[in-house]
């Protein structure tokens, strides 16, 4: 995973609450077996509408999505994170994220930064009044800067550390292989096991 | 202070706990399907890592499979299924493929094989993994990076979930089902109400539910934003499990049941949040909007946006009504549908099919309405055929299909056309969920059957007496 320290890019106002992962990428786009190439599915239904924000210049080239509350609800598909990243987004700002989506983002290097809803509303106004405005997200300082406005955001310490270091979870866990083995030695025998193929 | 059920199961699986780090949790069972696993296997190959516990890993084909006989016609869907087969062969994982007697929706086959047991940790790259919580397991959906993590380490680093009690007192009225109850819960706490929580369903109404009804409840916990749903195991659970393929036997069974009986929330345990529902006040519940929290009693009307004071909420309701093509104030019972879908991991089990068949017997599906009946697994299908339920559906004019996820998410050919409207026993009414431009109303199996007969959203109480007695 790439390290994330700070990112500056065009902010995209998405005035929608409850953006579920079926909207971020519909199921028919989940059939690829590779990890890239999902950008065509991003917000596929909404992008068919010319007035959708990502069809407007200069939002088309956006990389910081500013969304309404409860972003990423529904299906656990990590393809939603990949679609956002493949399109070019590095950060999503919202006042509330669905748990699985937030977890998936942290594993793939997409920063989900939690702001107060009133800050989101102000960002929406700034970005709508001045399309193309750059937004800077500083993970070290946990701040979002837009023009003269600076907002604090929340992200859990462990995810922040992993993103800053660009660390892969699996190698971190495998450092504790002995502890896993010790645990396995004491699992109850009645727990189910399947025959190996 | 005592512990909640969720905390007990969590604590029994902590491999490592350290200050400032998430707990490392051991996973007892990892379920796989074709959609969320290919990139995880690629990751293993790249890092040259094996699957740590093949004996705790099971795969099936469900999301892409056609429900009519014959091969997969869509080449992209076929590639995804073939990729799973190759991966399972290469890594030595037990797979239940299309055509196998044990094939079916991943959350239906775990319980029916007896692989899902109380006190286990169960994960799958699918949000409806919460279904397995009906057995008192801690079961939750994960993303593909986590699928790879579990394949490689049989563990997951996780911060403990908070706990919420959903206590349902009293008895469900006649004709009110588990589906109505969970839709009412989601409408009450909202699609974000459960975020960060494990929900524990308790109370008199829950204790009286069958295992299959409990699975319907836990299945939709994710629609309230929760990580998982759980119900403490009891004699109903043990009776369901006894004798199943992977259930413990003999002395091991006795040992297991003794341990499982400890899996109840202690009297002095404290939940982080509590919600109370009076079962006696519930009635058949349906959704009118584009998220599962936008539901109302079937006897209500489509909301009127002008009545909603909050700007954001009014905008959300307006958008949903516009997408759904509805008129504010219309009685829900006047909404006519094109399609009825009976199936999915929410309501594709044998009791669901029996309940719907009981309503349909002696009736016909309304002119112009298409009804798809898709059993949740090959075993459910065989059982239904042994009971003659397939004849009831076919005689009424419904289509009797093969097992799979089907129109719940339309990854196979079973989809709504743009503008088409369904009454669906599945779990999500998101925009385009069942096909681009499709409109979904979530309902219980009996409401689905009654709706098929009348052509408009209906409960069995709205039906005339059957023309003939079957």
Largest interface (C-beta under 8 Å) = A-B, 60 and 87 residues
| Helix percentage of chain A | 25-40%
Structure annotation, total helices of chain B: 16
**Classification by helices and strands of chain B:** alpha/beta
Q: Any low-confidence stretches of chain B, pLDDT <50, length ≥5?
A: none
Oligomeric category: heterodimer
Largest sheet of chain A: 7 strands, mixed
The structure class of chain A reads alpha/beta
> How far apart lie the N and C ends of chain A?
33 Å
Please state how the strands of the largest beta sheet of chain B are arranged side by side: 5-4-3-6-7
Q: Assign an overall shape of chain B.
A: globular
Distance between the termini of chain B: 57 Å
Q: How would you explain this protein's 3D organization?
A:
By secondary structure, chain A is of the alpha/beta class. Chain A contains 8 helices and 7 strands, in the order E-H-H-E-H-E-H-E-H-E-E-E-H-H-H. Chain A has helices at 21-24, 44-47, 79-87, 99-108, 117-129, 157-165, 169-174, 177-184, and strands spanning 6-14, 64-67, 91-94, 111-114, 134-138, 143-146, 149-152. Chain B is built from 16 helices and 19 strands. Chain B has helices at 5-11, 38-47, 75-91, 106-113, 144-153, 178-189, 204-207, 211-219, 235-241, 250-260, 311-324, 344-347, 350-360, 378-386, 389-396, 445-454, and strands at 14-16, 23-26, 29-32, 57-60, 94-96, 121-124, 138-141, 155-158, 162-169, 197-202, 228-230, 273-278, 285-287, 295-297, 339-342, 370-373, 399-400, 421-424, 439-442. A 5-stranded parallel beta sheet of chain B has the order 5-4-3-6-7. Chain B is globular. Chain B starts with a helix and ends in a 16-residue tail after the last helix. Classes of the chains: A alpha/beta (197), B alpha/beta (470). At the A-B interface, helix 4, helix 7 and helix 8 of A face helix 2, helix 3, helix 5, helix 10 and helix 11 of B.
